[in-house]
Structures are given as C-alpha cells and as structure tokens.
Amino acid sequence: MDARPWLALLTGVMLVSAELCLPDGIPRTSREYIQDPLNSPEGSAIRMVVYDWAAAEVATELTAILLSEVLGYHVEVSSERTTGSVASALQLAGCVSFDCSEKQPRSHVAMDTWVAGMPGELADFERTHPELAAKSMGSMGYSGQDTLYVKGSVRDEAYYTSGLALEFYKSYNTSLHEPSKFFSKVSDLDKADFVPCNSSAHEFTNDVQMRFYGQWTGDWEGVLETETGYIANCSDGHFWVSPACRHNVSECIPIVAAGFGWNVYVFMQWSTLFSMPTAIGIPKGEEQRRFAVENFRTLFHWWSPDAAFTHLDASMLVFPQHNRREWEAGWYRTAYPENQIIKLVAGQLTGMAPRVTRFLENLELYLDDVQGLLLELEAGATARAASCNWVRAQRSVWTGWIPVDTQCLPGEGGHLTDRSAAVGCSACHPGNFSEAFRDGQGATYVCRPCPAGSFENAFGKTHCVDCDVGTFTEGTGQAHCTRCGLGRYANSTGMTHCHACGIDHWTTSQRVPSEGLEKWLEVDGATSESYCTCVEGWFLNKGTCERCLRGSSCIGSEIRLLPGFHSTLEDPRKGCA
Ligand SMILES: *[C@@H]1O[C@H](CO)[C@@H](O)[C@H](O)[C@H]1NC(C)=O
Ligand SMILES: *[C@@H]1O[C@H](CO)[C@@H](O)[C@H](O)[C@H]1NC(C)=O
Ligand SMILES: *[C@@H]1O[C@H](CO)[C@@H](O)[C@H](O)[C@H]1NC(C)=O
Ligand SMILES: *[C@@H]1O[C@H](CO)[C@@H](O)[C@H](O)[C@H]1NC(C)=O
Ligand SMILES: *[C@@H]1O[C@H](CO)[C@@H](O)[C@H](O)[C@H]1NC(C)=O
Ligand SMILES: *[C@@H]1O[C@H](CO)[C@@H](O)[C@H](O)[C@H]1NC(C)=O
C-alpha cells in the first residue's frame, strides 16, 4: 500500500489552514502581539476559548480570521473545548480555580457565551477578584432559544386541512381540538430507543422537579413516590403520559426530549396545565434522538442557533411569556427565558488592546448568518472553511465592525498629535497616558508622557499616578518613581525631587532595637524629615552635623561619652580624660 497520497492530503490540509482566507489579509509575519504581561513580557497572541458547541466553533473561527487578517494580531484558538461560562470565566482570569491560588496562561476572548443567569460561583468570584472578572462585550447579535418544536410538514398539514395552528399552545387543548391526529402514535416508536423512566441519571427521577410537578398541577397520579424520592409515573415504563390522553395512550402526541431529559419537567407541567395530550420519552442517545425526530411526526426539544434539524423547517411552539418569579418557584406555565448570548473577554483586555475590544463590541452576527454557517457544518464543512466563505462574501458587513484606524480610544493613542501622520492606534506604553484630543475630524486620543512627579507602569492607561511619599520622578515619561537617596526625603506625593536633610554629613536612618542594644539602620525612600540624622561619627549641634569628639561615640545624631570620659553640661565638646 502506498501511503504517499495520504501524506499529500495531510500536507494540503495543513497548508490550507496556514494560508490566508482573504486575498488582501495581513500575513502572519506582519502581525502584532498584544501586551499581556501576565502571559509573557514580550507580548502574547490573542488567545481564544472555544465552547463545545457548533455555533461557538464557527463564531470563534470567524472572529479569529478577522482579528488576524484584518486587525493584524497574532491569534491562538484553543485546541480544547470548554463546557460553559463558569469554566471560561476562569480561563479568562488566568486562574485554575476560583480562589485563584493556581494560575494558568490567560485567555482573552470567548465568543458565543450563553448566560441564562449568573451562576453563584461566578458572582462570588467577581466580588473577590474584581480585577480578574471577565467583561461582556455585548450580545452576539442573536439570542438563544430553547423550547419544543413542530416539524414543518406536520404544521402545514394541520393548518391546510383544518386551520389548526400547531405553533400555538392553545391549539393542543383537547376540549376544543384533536391535534393528535396529525402526529405519530407512541406505539409507532421503538421503546428500546428510549431510557426507562426510573433510570437514575435522567430528569424523570429528579425528586425536586417531580415534587414541583405534583404540587403545581395537583396531578399526583403523574408521579410515583419511591425510596429514592419522586419519579415520573410511566405506565409503560418509558413514556410519561399527560392527563389529557391518559385514558387512551393512542391519542397522545409523542414528545422527544434531548440530553439526559433536559427540562422534561417543564414539558410535563405545560402538558397538564394546558390540557395537551402528550407522551414524553427520553431517547437513549443523540443517534436515537435524531432518528425519532426525523422519521416520525412528533414534538421535539430543540434550540437555536443549531442546525441539526434545520432541514425539517420546524417551528417553535409559542407559550405565554416567560415569568421569572414563577420559574424560580418551579412553576412552569410560561415560556422559557430567552438566553443572552454574549462575547466575553478578559477583564484587562480593554487596557491591553483597546482596538480589539472596540472591534468585538461592534461585531454582531444575525441569526441567519449563524444558521447559514451551521448548515455548512452539518453538510460536512470545517468551521474554518465555513467561516472563511462567510468572511469573503460578507465584506460589507464586517468592515463596519473594524474601528477607524486614527480614531483612538481611551487608553490608546496615535502617538502623534497630527492625525494625518498617525499610523493607527495602539495602547499607550508605560510611562505614557492617553489623553483626549480634538481636531477638525473630531475626538480622538493621543499618548503623552507622564508629567514629572508622576508615573504609569501599565499599558493603556488614561492617567498617570502621582509618585508616593518617599519617591520622585525628575523627568517626564517615567514608568516608575525613584526612591529618595540617603540624606533625602519626600514628605508629600507627586514630588519631582527629594528635600535634602542638610548640607553635609547627613543621612536618613531609623532606630532599631537589637538584642537590648540600640542600633541605627540607614534607610532610603524616607517619607519625612524625621528620618534625617547625621552620618555615623558625626553629631547634631545647632542644626549642623559636627565631627565626633575624642572619647565619644556619635550615632543617630547623638553624642555619647565612652566610659572613662566626661564632659561639661554646657559644652559637650570640652570632654577630657
Ligand atoms: C426500573 O423498573 C424496572 C421494571 O419496573 C425494574 O426491573 C428495574 O430494576 C428498575 N430500575 C431501577 C434503577 O429502579
Ligand atoms: C400511575 O399511573 C397509573 C396509570 O396511569 C395509575 O393507574 C396509577 O394509579 C398511578 N400511580 C400512582 C401512585 O398514582
Ligand atoms: C383510543 O384512541 C384511538 C385513536 O383516537 C381510537 O381509535 C380508539 O378507539 C381509542 N380507544 C378507546 C378504547 O377509546
Ligand atoms: C381548554 O378549552 C376549554 C373549553 O373551551 C376551556 O374551558 C379550558 O380553559 C381550556 N384549557 C386551557 C388550559 O386553556
Ligand atoms: C512612551 O511611549 C513612547 C511611544 O509609544 C515610547 O517610545 C516610550 O518608551 C514610552 N515611555 C516609556 C517610559 O516607556
Ligand atoms: C515637607 O518638608 C518641607 C521641607 O522641610 C516643608 O516645608 C513642608 O511643609 C513639608 N510638607 C509636609 C506636607 O509636611
């Protein structure tokens, strides 16, 4: 067997991914790094988190192409898949766990982040580490939907033969309509494809939710009390049957759940509270779920954006508007909440790369865009290929997201006061700050050196900080303040020089007790005149330092007679043996 064709194919794949997507894209060799001192003092690529769902993969690839080929940054897309916003918040903080005692390289961007509400752990983290908390760059442009769906063919047949709108929950009321005649029967489905209702890892055995069901519907026959808590009461062991068709299961509409029975308890309450004749089953796996949905006429749990069932032209079922307070109490007689889907970035990214965050704020995809991309994935395209096609075809859409090069943001500047000569904006370097600046073309920002007496040690700041007491900066544009030398002090903040203690033989020192003896330690960075003392061997007399006398010791500005010597009180200099 000749392995070479395979080799050629592999090389081809690698070449394609290293190649530019846009014919006029910025090549790798001309790209910049962002300043992230936490990752590397030399600069870091923009590191992107990827969630383990298809929409996140395409949104990430698409963003990566624009960040690298249009904005000109080095970008690294993680090869690992992240499960949700709790995990990504840690990656964006550069922490391994919420106490942040262990660090990992910091990621910068997480596209397609679903936030249905903030998990408690995240809220705590924001309180304890506000500087590390991730920031939202706003909506992706579409929101997430999660609900029951009906296939297009079923919906159309019902509407055109009897005017029944199966998209609407009230059409399922068995007192008025007979919706089940448009659907398959439970007996048509293969029971072996569905998990038993008593299986412990699934939502039919969620004690809390099954209790809520009984409590809010009063249908205690629909649940069973067991040793391990309440479980769904399924007469045939696999399908839970709603009161509206419990008398005759062949009048039930099958509902195909997803995952481990995600939210079946919501569908149970809907069915009972709205007199819907349904029989809910949880497929054993993704393959069984797809098979049941595609081959039978059922209601099914699905969400958007997702392309798995796009070809079925399905419609969402409309329920009364979401009521958050009721849902919090486990009472589901309204629709799902709308999930926000946002762009999440590292808290410090705005300071490190303001252009990147401005671009991300502008980036907005429509549901149609994502659905189109997801359909390409379903048809076998890679996320990179699908995104690249979109980027090539939709130039007029994304050019609106690219920040104007000479319109600088707070924290950055064109480094030049003349806009025509400015070469794009980038974060101001340490020693500089970004100052608002207005010219004929409007407001922008420029980087200016910090004034003497102040400093700035971070990138992308809008102001400089006054030097602390004990320190100073003499010149402008300093990233750090210098400590006052010996014999000098700075007794206020923002000093451009240190005061001298005196003319000659002065130092700054501090008395330290050491094994009962008194010792003086010279200190720099003195914050007040009280540190001023004469150097050892000199003592203070009427404001000047004088040389120590024979037979005395001089330290800390004081003079002491050595044993065996004495002096007169009036003039300590007249000591004699
Ligand atoms: C579920 O029910 C079946 C039949 O009623 C029984 O054989 C099985 O042991 C039960 N399984 C669990 C986990 O309770
Ligand atoms: C469970 O459902 C069956 C059939 O619908 C019913 O006969 C039975 O009474 C129910 N069990 C309980 C505990 O309500
Ligand atoms: C149950 O419903 C089916 C379908 O509507 C019907 O044909 C059948 O006669 C019903 N069975 C009983 C016992 O009512
Ligand atoms: C179903 O229709 C009947 C008859 O019109 C009505 O009394 C009942 O309130 C309806 N049920 C729901 C949940 O809308
Ligand atoms: C201030 O910014 C300029 C231009 O970015 C840079 O050359 C200079 O080094 C910066 N100052 C300091 C102290 O880094
Ligand atoms: C700091 O020291 C100088 C010189 O000794 C003195 O004039 C000034 O009042 C002091 N300032 C403060 C805030 O103590």
From TrEMBL:
Keywords: Signal. Residues 443-477 form the Tyrosine-protein kinase ephrin type A/B receptor-like domain. Residues 1-18 form the signal peptide. Pfam families: Ephrin_rec_like. InterPro entries: Growth_fac_rcpt_cys_sf, Tyr-kin_ephrin_A/B_rcpt-like. The keyword Signal applies. The keyword Disulfide bond does not apply. PANTHER family: INSULIN-LIKE GROWTH FACTOR BINDING PROTEIN,N-TERMINAL, SUSHI, VON WILLEBRAND FACTOR TYPE A, EGF AND PENTRAXIN DOMAIN-CONTAINING PROTEIN 1-LIKE. This is Tg protein. The lineage of its organism: Eukaryota, Sar, Alveolata, Dinophyceae, Suessiales.
